[in-house]
Amino acid sequence: MLRTVLLRTVATVxxxxxxxxxxxxxxxxxxPKRLLxxxx
Length: 40
Known about the structure:
rod-shaped; about 40 residues; mainly alpha
């Protein structure tokens, strides 16, 4: 039972943190491009 709860907790945390991390990486990658387009 403990293993099931642990797996469920890890899955929930991963499901919350992974999209946030991915969004942050995409936002950081898109920022310089936007600045270059605005400047040029």
